[in-house]
Write a structure and sequence with these properties.
Layout: E1 34-36, E2 42-44, H1 55-69, H2 76-121, H3 127-212, H4 218-233, H5 237-278, E3 282-285, E4 294-298, E5 310-316, E6 323-325, E7 333-334, E8 344-351, E9 354-359, H6 369-377, E10 381-391, E11 394-395, E12 401-407, E13 410-415, E14 418-424, E15 430-433, E16 444-450, E17 453-459, H7 462-478
Antiparallel strand pairs: 1-2, 3-4, 4-7, 5-6, 5-8, 8-9, 10-11, 10-12, 10-17, 12-13, 13-14, 15-16, 16-17
Helix pairs in contact: 1-3, 2-3, 6-7
Length: 490
């Protein structure tokens, strides 16, 4: 980018001003002799016995170079050329206006001449009349030619106007660029001046300290200056890296503090809820983890029995900002579903016209469940032994063992060669933990194969039930189908 300054006198490239580190601590009273080679490499000259130029002379030379840099070329010449072209375009526009006026006067004169010739044609006869008619035709030809010239003049006027507008816009842009570059250059010059002032102050302090100190080793000064210039040329990467390390450490500390704060908030919330539950007439019994079930129990014999109460279970977000109704969970028992992990559960109890609410802590996952699910997902299908407890909402009479096969594309329920249901994953399919008060609720799940065909299946263990739900949902998600319970938000 071209830099500008208020005074434009001398052209000087950017490389004429060698960069000087602003934070160099000068502990010697003179600079060594050196010069810059290709790629800004420092070439040392043989050290002579006599002392080199003083540090003050070098600073004066740096200040002189800075003054020369202040007088660099700018874009003002470009703006001046735009102004000259704009003046020339305006001159062309004025000439076009004059030609337009002259053309209008020519039309008037030709019309008058033609009228005069028409009046003379009626008065003459013979050869004189033919001469008048020739004169009239010549006048008409001149009028046509004048009209053509007017068209060309209009086109030329349009082009000149377009050029004037373009040059005006270019001139305004050039002026804006001049002002912008001027501000940038002034800021850079002020920054360089502050650097020189700091160097001058360092020089004064060095002169005072040198009076009482011994002459220092010149080789040490050379190494220090070379290191300072190298740091300046490389934009001081050591400082940047140190700042990055500090920022990284601060981020780690903030992350640890945030995790600790969230943990404390959760503990406070859990303690608060425990205190609230202690003052309730009812309490939740059971482990608040996947693979178990929660049961509402009265705290004393004086409160109504749970059989005389109505219930509704809810699923809350981890922050407790909103809650979702768990459709069908209207009993005193509820077995958490894999989708409840990390969520808070609530149950509303209505007894004798009064409404009470019990709240759990976030549901904890089962250790080792995720790794086992990942190993099963590598297979094409997985079989589970189940017993049909209900079919289409009615108790099933047979308690024989069936095979519940969860595949990548479909789910099949069969006993030997007899297939009870075989359906591919579809939006009408539903799969979740059982939400009724059946026995072994933590081992049972609800499966709606399609509309009009549903089952309540009891597995051999709570672990098999949860694994079957998680594996089926992952396979269904690969088929762009979300498996959930009735009326669940998906």
């Amino acid at each position: 980018m071209t830099k500008i300054s208020p005074e434009v006198e001398i052209r000087m490239p950017m490389e004429a001003f060698p960069p000087v580190s602003a934070d160099v601590s000068f502990i010697y009273d003179s600079f060594p002799k050196y010069k810059l080679g290709a790629d800004n490499q420092i070439l040392e000259e043989p050290v002579e016995d006599n002392q080199g130029p003083s540090l003050k002379d070098v600073i004066e030379q740096e200040a002189s170079n800075l003054s020369d840099q202040h007088k660099r070329i700018s874009v003002r010449d470009l703006a001046s050329k735009f102004d000259k072209n704009l003046a020339a375009a305006a001159k062309l526009s004025n000439e076009a206006k004059l030609r337009e006026v002259a053309s209008l006067e020519g039309h008037v004169l030709l019309k008058k001449l033609r009228d005069a010739l028409e009046s003379l044609r009626g008065r003459f006869a013979g050869i004189n009349k033919e001469d008048v008619e020739k004169a009239i035709s010549m006048v008409e030809a001149l009028a046509v030619k004048l009209t053509q010239n007017e068209g060309e003049l209009i086109q030329e006027k349009f082009e000149v106007k377009k050029l004037v507008n373009f040059l005006k816009q270019a001139s305004e842009d050039a002026k804006k660029l001049v002002n912008q570059e001027k501000s940038f250059a002034c800021a850079e010059i002020e920054s360089a001046r502050s650097v020189v002032l700091r160097i001058g102050e360092a020089l004064d302090e060095q002169e005072k300290a040198s009076q009482a100190s011994k002459p220092q080793d010149v080789d040490g000064l050379i190494e220090e200056v070379q290191e300072a210039r190298r740091i300046k040329l490389l934009h001081q990467p050591s400082k940047v890296m140190a700042m990055e390390y500090e920022l990284r450490a601060l981020r780690d500390q903030i992350r640890e503090k945030s995790i600790f704060s969230i943990k404390l908030q959760k503990e406070l919330t859990m303690n608060k809820r425990d205190e609230e539950n202690k003052s309730r007439l009812y309490m939740l019994h059971g482990s608040e983890a996947l693979g178990s079930y929660l049961r509402v129990q009265p705290c004393s014999d004086e409160v109504p029995h749970v059989s005389k109460c109505s219930f509704q279970w809810y699923r809350l977000s981890s922050e407790g900002s909103w809650r979702e109704v768990i459709s069908g969970a209207v009993k005193s028992i509820y077995a958490p579903d894999p989708s409840d992990v990390g969520r808070i559960l609530q149950v509303d109890i209505v007894s004798s016209g009064k409404k009470l609410t019990l709240t759990t802590n976030p549901i904890q996952p089962v250790s080792g469940l995720g790794s086992h699910v990942e190993s099963l997902l590598r297979k094409s299908n997985t079989d589970f032994n189940v017993v049909i407890s209900q079919m289409n909402g009615k108790d099933h009479s047979s308690h024989s063992t069936h095979s519940f096969n969860v595949g990548r594309m479909r789910i099949k329920l069969c006993r030997g060669w007899i297939t009870k249901a075989r359906e591919i994953y579809s939006p009408s399919m539903q799969l979740c933990g059982v939400r009724s008060d059946v026995s072994n609720a933590a081992k049972a799940l609800f499966w709606q194969a399609r509309k009009g065909l549903s089952f309540v299946l009891t597995f051999e263990s709570e672990r098999d039930r949860n694994i079957a739900i998680v594996v089926a949902r992952k396979y269904a998600l690969d088929c762009n189908v979300v498996l959930a319970g009735p009326d669940d938000l998906v």
